[in-house]
Design a protein that fits this description.
This is IS1634 family transposase. It comes from Allocoprobacillus halotolerans. InterPro entries: IS1634_transpos, RNaseH-like_sf, Transposase_11. With about 550 residues, the chain is of the alpha+beta class. Helix 5 (about 115-130) crosses helix 16 (about 470-495), helix 8 (about 165-180) runs parallel beside helix 16 and helix 12 runs antiparallel to helix 13. The relative contact order is 0.11. The protein has a nine-stranded mixed beta sheet with strand order 7-6-5-8-9-15-12-11-10, sandwiched between helices. Strands 4-16-17-18 form a four-stranded antiparallel beta sheet. Strands 1-2-3 form a three-stranded antiparallel beta sheet. It is built from 19 helices and 18 strands.
Length: about 550
């Protein structure tokens, strides 16, 4: 459709009209019709318009501009992007037939929504873009392939219902996972972490206790049991003030009993849980342990071994030949000091110790140390009081050689030692027959799982009252748990652990399309993983253009 100014000469006068051109379905071709008659040029000149043709041509141009603007594509209030990277997990849920068993909850409860749709869509949203439940509902769920059929209030109700008895949902996944995939429980791993909430007042569930971030906020503790491949097989949530040794013993035993596990469990811990009591606890139960220890706290003899640059070091590189880390190990008896019946005793445990050096971590640590030293120097120059230094005081001498109070000066020896130890880490385990690389991978895989849970913690408290309730919080962690579970099944059972968690999750989050005029445009950045996965699945994952049929083909894929 378009407009033009028509000029007709008749009886010595020039008549004007605005004519509309359009497509005629009857004639099956273009046609014209008068949109507006404008009388003669001479008449308009008599009315004072010097150039009627130029005057009405402007009106025609305005009409054509209006048509052009009305036909142009406009941005909308919602994002045109659609996430596709979660399609392998759709296939996994279908293969394990999870819907059949979750649907039983619909039968026994008067839900006005589909509980399986709610659970699965929240898991998919958590995988592609982890964020608060409010943002998930309003921004992430609309970007999944299929629209959801529940309201935000129903989302909150469903989340609380699932959290009320989250163990049943974990049991459903475990039973179906065992039927489809072999789960290796000859050796299991246990990790315990906690999550802080930025609230002032405690409640029955969020209680103040020893926080890994050394914060004073109320926390919730979480125990996680994993199989030999670090695939989650059990989760237990408990108040933060109960994360002491007796509670951990009960949590481990309850999870092992529930999952019918009698083999050894390796208690994996970070630097905050490597006390002698926890080690002895693992030993007395016939279990093992694996924890990290700061090399800065080692005796001088062990520090010399850590820094000794000999032929014992082995290097691990990526496909491009870039050094990821290097390591060396030793097996020996190491002393631990414990108090029994009020008397201090020294006991010895035979352990394997693996020291690693990570060049990326070293660079990061050196940068952090340099920034802290710079601040400490500024305080020295300004003659700040000792109390103003805080943690920076470790880099400063406040006394002279005789131990007398003196002007603050930078302690170059301490700085040199810290820079020298940057990038080194020590892993200690009771499993002396375990390969050093397996020790490293086990610890870091569990660290990644813990990091997967460390998403949007404070958002739970920032939401309305619904997400401050205990069951809603438990429902949130259930969704996180199931997201991690599916990723680990995909990584170990489908991809045979050929790709890292980082590579997989980068694909899951970045594989997106945008709706074009007739096709979808694939806006994903190319990677080795997506090329390999395309070869494996025979799906058009790297095509720039995707049709509606191809998108449906991707989501019908069976693993």
């Amino acid at each position: 459709m378009a407009y033009f100014l028509k000029k007709t000469h008749r009886n010595g006068r020039t008549y004007l009209s605005i004519v509309e051109s359009y497509y005629s379905p009857q004639k099956r071709c273009g046609a014209h019709r008068t949109f507006k008659s404008l009388a003669s040029v001479e008449s308009w000149k008599a009315k004072g318009i010097e150039d009627p043709i130029a005057h009405f041509q402007k009106e025609v141009d305005a009409l054509n501009d209006e048509i052009s603007n009305s036909q142009a594509l406009k941005i909308s209030e919602s994002s045109p992007e659609l996430y596709l990277g979660y399609f392998p997990f759709v296939s996994l849920l279908n293969k394990m037939n999870i819907k059949k068993f979750v649907d039983y909850f619909n039968i026994s409860n008067s839900f006005e929504f589909d509980l399986y749709e709610l659970l699965s869509s929240l898991v998919f949203a958590r995988l592609v873009n982890p964020c608060s439940k409010h943002k998930t509902f309003h921004e992430v769920l609309p970007q999944l392939k299929d629209p959801v059929h529940f309201s935000y209030d129903q989302l909150l109700d469903g989340l609380a219902f699932m959290g009320n008895d989250y163990g049943k949902f974990i049991e459903i996944f475990n039973e179906q996972m065992k039927k489809v995939y072999h789960i290796n429980t000859s050796k299991t791993y246990f990790d315990c972490t906690n999550f802080y909430f930025e609230i002032d007042k405690e409640d029955d569930f969020r209680r103040k206790g020893p926080s890994k971030e050394n914060r004073k906020d109320p926390i919730v503790s979480l125990g996680l049991l994993l199989d030999a491949n670090q695939i989650p097989i059990g989760m237990k949530l408990f108040p933060g003030n109960e994360s002491e040794k007796p509670v951990l013993r009960d949590v481990i035993q309850a999870l092992k009993k529930k999952n019918q596990i009698s083999g050894k469990t390796i208690h994996v811990a970070d630097k905050g849980l490597n006390c002698t009591q926890n080690i002895a606890f693992s030993k007395e139960n016939g279990d093992g342990y694996l924890f990290s220890k700061s090399v800065k706290t080692l005796p001088e003899k062990e520090k010399i071994w850590v820094l000794l640059n000999n032929e014992d070091w082995k290097e691990i590189k990526n496909d491009n030949g870039t050094l990821l880390y290097r390591y060396k190990s030793c097996i020996d008896k190491f002393p631990y000091h414990i108090e029994i019946d009020g008397k201090k005793k020294t006991i010895y445990f035979t352990e394997k110790r693996v020291v690693t050096y990570n060049p990326k971590l070293a660079s990061k640590k050196r940068y952090e140390i340099s920034k802290q030293v710079e601040k400490a120097r500024s305080l020295c120059y300004s003659q700040a009081k000792r109390a103003e230094y805080g943690d920076l005081g470790k880099y400063v001498n406040f006394t002279n050689e005789n131990g007398e109070k003196a002007k603050a000066t930078i302690n170059e020896d301490i700085i040199e030692k810290e820079l020298e130890l940057a990038g080194y880490n020590l892993l200690i385990t009771s499993e002396t027959n375990m390969k050093s690389t397996d020790i490293y991978n086990t610890y870091h895989n569990l660290w990644r799982i813990e990091e997967s849970f460390r998403i949007m913690k404070s958002d739970l408290d920032a939401r309305p009252v619904f997400l401050q309730k205990e069951n809603s919080i438990k429902g949130h962690f259930l969704i996180c748990y199931l997201a991690v579970l599916l990723e680990r099944i995909f990584q170990f059972k489908i991809l045979n652990n050929k790709y890292s968690t980082q590579e997989i999750m980068k694909f899951v989050k970045s594989f997106k399309i945008v709706k074009g005029e007739s096709k979808y445009i694939n806006v994903t950045t190319s990677s080795k993983f997506i090329k390999d996965f395309e070869q494996m699945t025979k799906l058009p994952l790297t095509n720039y253009y995707l049709t509606e049929r191809q998108v449906k083909q991707i989501f019908r894929y069976k693993i």
